[in-house]
Fold these 2 entries.
Entry 1:
Amino acid sequence: MGDVASTAEAVARASYGKLVAFLAARTRDVAGAQDALSEAFAAALTDWPHSGIPRAPEAWLLTVARRKLIDAARRRRAGEEAAPTLALLTDEFDEADGEPAIPDERLRLMFACAHPAIDAGVRAPLILQAVLGFDAAAIASAFLVSPSTMGQRLVRAKSRIRQAGIPFRVPDPDELAGRLDAVLEAIYAVYAEGWSDPAGTQARSRGLAEEGIWLGRLVASLLPQQPEALGLLALMLHTEARRAARRDAQGEFVPLDAQDPARWDAALIEEAESLLLCASRMDAPGRFQLEAAVQSAHAARRRSGQTDWSAIVGLYDALLALTGSVVIAINRAVALAAHLDGPRGAAEGLVALDALDGARLAEYQPYWAARAALLARSGDAHAAAQAYQRAIGLESDPAVRRFLQTELSQGFSKQGAGDKPLPSPTPVGEGPGVRACGPLRSAVRNPR
Amino acid sequence: MQYLLLIYGNETAMLNTPKEASNQIMAAYTAYTEAMKKAGALLGSNRLRPTSEATTVRAPGGKQTVLDGPFAETKEQLAGYFLIEAPDLDAALSWASRCPGSQHGAVEVRPVWVM
């Protein structure tokens, strides 16, 4: 039974978005597809223990879900759009190796969710919900709204897709500009959720980074002429390359500056670099390309042994001009301090941090961690200790918390300025919904 | 799917458009309507007479009131409509963006709730 349940869960995780996309692309009914699919998963849990796990579990689930959808369409008032649902009956798949090849229509589903007729604020949450099956409560916490509000917005948006006839298709090149942004943002949010749990201890986050990269690869392969799509994939691959190096043998947090470049994944770095090169040849810089370029500058330490802080400050300047994001401003301040080095660098970095709007940063952990390190460098032990306390209090990852506690208890007070690594100035983007103008939240952390 | 394209514009400005410009707009509408017919998208269309000629009826609880004028005073008024058949919202939006009315005012696209 446990085996069946875990197989069902694994199939659910792996196939959810694909099955929703397949069903919804034919009916335009995302909510109906999700309902039918959860009924199919429930049926699997009662059926599989007796009849055994089917040879092609995904196809089994799809068959049951289709039947549920068709039943639901028949129950509905006659004449109301039953035809596309009934057409599901006749839709056949190609059989490859005896297993039905279910076409992957997740990208089409994502573009339907990112349609300009959908309220801009709900596009990325809707993509996460439709493709990954996150519940409204989980999405609400990531996007800083109440679960009931998020639930209502998602219901309204799904109903709008269906009633307004929003198509499931990849837009033409001339329409792509605004729509691609929401899709890329959602993919990055998926990746960031997975990244914030490097140990893979939370079931919900497990595999999300891989999922994000998979979606990023899909978009980049379908839209190879879109530099930002390539930039996003390069960014994710660069940060992914450092996954193993972020923890030492004891599972303790290792900040970027202290990481051993030999532990970085060279193949992923190579791939990221060539994507970024491709993107830069198209001569249309954007947020993801710039963030990938920052990661590329850090990755260069693998060969040169040095970090080109002046280049990184320049990239953050460009990013700040583009996004106005507070998160970028914090990173820029830390990079500036590293670039100028010593107490003067720390002082300049602190001036830059002081210029930010403090009230909104009260709960933003990376701000306090950056502040603590710069204060320690500038020799203000008392203020540094206070900032460390706040950073520790706001941190949810136990390994990072222990790292900060060690810094606080023995690190900065014994050492002179300049020989202490700064906190990694690499929280690349912003987590789901954490925009420059929005509230900040430490729980939605950024890859570091 | 059926969509109703509702054309809104500033009625006063429209009525005061010089003859030549007005002819040009009418010619644009004629071409637009023809293109829709040729594409097999047009189900029906009409221009509406000004809101000064509107009469509004309400009968709450069976008690009928008849008021002179449109149902609401707005900056832009409903001037006409096109009822079209389109495969999806994008196709409907594409027709709406080509409607001459979208250059002078706004075109609201509403999916029709077929009864």
Note: Residues 54 and 69 of chain B are 5 Å apart (CA to CA).
Entry 2:
Amino acid sequence: MSIQTTALAKKYATAFVNLFDDELNGEVNSRIEQFVHFLLHRRAALVFLGLPHIPAEKKVNVVEKIVDKFQLPESIKKIVRLLISNNRQMIIAQVLQQILMVYRKRHHIEIFDVKTVEPLDENQKDEVRRFLETQVSGTVRCDFVTESEIIAGLRAQSNTNLWEYSVAKDIRNLKKLINC
Amino acid sequence: MDIKNTDLVSLLEKSLQDVGQEKLEEIGIVVQVGDYVCKVHGLTRAVYGELIKFEGGNSGIIFNLGEDFVDIFLLQSAIPVVELEVAKRTGGVFKTPVSKEMIGRVLNSLGQPIDGLGEIKHEELRPIEGTIPSVIERSPINKSLETGIMAVDTLVPIGRGQRELIIGNRNTGKTAIAIDTIIHQKNQNVICIYCSIGQRQANVARVVNYLQEHGAMDYTIVVSADASEAVLNRYLAPYVACTIGEYFMDSGHDVLIVYDDLSNHAIAFREMSLLLRRSPGREAYPGDIFYLHSRLLERAGKLARGGSLTALPIVHIQGDDITAYVPTNLISITDGQIFLDTRLFNQGIRPAVNVELSVSRVGSAAQTKIIKQMTKALRLELAQYHELLSFAQFGTELDEVSQRKLARGAIVVEILKQAQGITYSCIDQALMLFLLNEDFLDKISLAYVHSFVRQFVSYVKSVYQEMYDALTKTQDMSEENRIKLREIAKEFSLLFVEPSA
């Protein structure tokens, strides 16, 4: 995805959130995420949308059916229709991604990828979530994954923040020290 | 550096004791990597010029702040930066180490030694773009910085705290003038900094060797960003050199800094601007190319509390055209320029200083009294000579007055010729000019004028040492001194034998 495409997608997303902010919530957002995932992992669908000899109405019909499958609100259908009519069907996924990002920024929601070597139990997960919420002073959503590369400890990373206390970090610092 | 397993364990143990002290770090994610430049998403609160550290060990400086992305130029070319790598804020701008131990050392553009003589313990870290001394903090330039080059000291004198541009075509002796000036600062209590920008490593090595041979490395620091280094290093080098100079100036020292050369610096900045997709202007330079050099050269000056920073920026031109973009900018920023002429250079007049196009706007106020007394009509005589010379070349029949002016001009040109590596003190120069002013050179064959004046200076130094010392002490060519010197010159004229005779 080029920088220019991102900028364009962000403009659509900002306009969308300005109009339909109240229609977005945690549940809708997770369905949008699933839809984005579907589009990004089925490139053939996007290729179909890009074929010039298929009329725009048919493309809209197909996309609307997919949108219905994901139980997305009417506003999402509107933005998808708009993009197809403007021949910008290739950036549908990016626009939806940007919608989520703009929404999260406005509502101070941060998504952290939390990496640990061993899986955490629910209590530990809550503790980590609470800790991160105090750190960022906002709402935090955590996606927990196990990662052996950190050796021991914990690494929580969002798009703009990082909290890490791990052996991998110490080794990295040691490496830098040796290189100096 | 040897690290034992036990050291690693103890380090890990120590770090485990610090649990809970880790803080949330502001980060961004690398989304695009190019030639020494990368685009990072995130870093929403980063500031312009901030130092950014990458998880892979590299670091860089922010040069563009966008709504979603920041552009970062990388400091190390050897450490790769990969897509999706984490870039962390440091919260501070790029700083260079400064220390008195740097004297006599060769440094890179990050202030680290590259001469293999061991580490330098830095006394402090200074931001490379500090506050420029205000008007109140500055004092007028009133003390001369002797270059030891007669053509410069007599015609385009430089004062301590002045910015004098050295401008000329390739191979006209620009670096030679700067290096000779550094060599002449021995025992003058001036710390010299030679900053090489975008030059070949062999050239830098040659300069360092030359300085060592002349014992100039005892008071000189060399900062080098050679042509092979990342564009950011070439951009940073003069700022780092200036910061080191300011450190010494702030401690009351007189500092001389040579930027060799700012054409390469401008080219490096142009490269960076084009990579950042900034709009190119004249000669593809960005709009703020003037500010690039003005903010660097404005840092030179003389402080009221003591200490000065004299800047000798060098710029090369093509085809003797001083109206190119960067040279005209630099001419307007600096307090004068020494223009080196290819035509004069090829005629064997070295240093090839073009008197008509060279000027020093503030240096005459700083010129020593004795030189001022001796050079009253020198510039005029030379100008008249060059004017008449063009007529003489056409074979025009000239009157007696013009012929006399031509003869005298030829002597002046001969006196001002000076070999590289040989510098004269102001008293030596005054004695040579005395011979010219008192017409002692009129009867000497042109080919022997130079040896006559040099031998005369040695004669005064050795036989009439008290006279020489008195002149050094008073720096004044009083009437009494003139009478005595006339007698000495007469005596020497009888002793001097032209080799042909």
Note: The longest strand of chain A covers residues 109-116.
